[in-house]
């Protein structure tokens, strides 16, 4: 017997909260944990590169399996449980070789979780998909809360707690996964037809544009804090700027139903690209603290509205029999490959240019190219359609 739709939405919202809370622990502190184990900068970079490769490739395989055999729920539970078991091995690892092996094993099963979660959410929301932001906002709230609280906690506690807290979150996720109902059957035998549907020019153009949007974010996610330090800003302002960006993102997510009731998905995407061009050009020029904080408000559009419209647009473009694969491809192409290329190009550009400022000019070019691709895309009059 399936739980009521309202209960399922609460379960999914809790999944977003725990998942992105774990991200809020991992991103700022896991590399620091490895550093305190004595790993070199090259070894830490190699671990990140290994994870990036797996994050690009494996979600596609898991998504294809889930849709081909109509096994999304079973695979979601499997991946949650095995990722938790794999991560538990980190507690006993102290050498680089062993850590690399454990991280690859962990990432293989952890990589598809967010794609599966997005697909479950689309199924659960049904005709109310434009309310997606109201569920996804729990992930953003968790990220902010964890980053703010954990920093103080770790001032007095050993970094080993980073591994323990991530493991606790993975165990909670695994238990909550048992409560997610199976998705309605969508004709696994038509998987081949649905897959070919994802190769249409309209889908390829969207994915290419989305890839370029995340490439343009490489300098921001990789070098924004360094950029502020180069400008002589205090570290308190660095923390405040990141928090302000996340707060702006939450405002858009809470109002996603209103936005998507008034504008088409391609329309929201076009606006997001325009705001990205403006944001990166401003970061290229602005050097005052108030101005830099004001620019951070644009994160509401370059991430918030872009992410919501992307998730819903790829769902709209994906036939029922390949919904999971559609979300997996979107995540792999954007937050996997796009960010990986963005980080690489930004790192290369930083060494070449000797600073961060001109990286944002290059980011505006990437955003312009992506916006030019998506500009001619047309969709229904509103997201609700």
SSE topology:
Blueprint: H1 5-36, H2 41-68, H3 72-88, H4 96-110, H5 113-125, H6 132-154, H7 160-177, H8 191-197, H9 201-216, H10 218-230, H11 235-254, H12 256-262, H13 265-285, H14 289-296, H15 299-317, H16 323-353, H17 357-374
Helix pairs in contact: 1-5, 1-6, 1-7, 2-3, 2-4, 2-16, 3-4, 3-7, 5-16, 6-11, 9-15, 9-16, 9-17, 10-16, 10-17, 11-14, 11-15, 13-15, 13-17, 15-16
Number of domains: 2
The description of the largest β-sheet is: none
Rg to the nearest angstrom? 20 Å
Helix-strand makeup class: mainly alpha
Alpha carbon gap, first and last residue:
30 Å
Q: Residue-averaged pLDDT, rounded?
A: 90
- By CATH reckoning, the class of the largest domain would read Mainly Alpha
Low-pLDDT segments? 381-385
CATH topology of the largest domain: Growth Hormone, Chain: A
Provide tags for this entry.
mainly alpha, 385 residues, globular, Growth Hormone, Chain: A, disordered C terminus, 17 helices
Gist of the model:
By secondary structure, the chain is mostly helical.
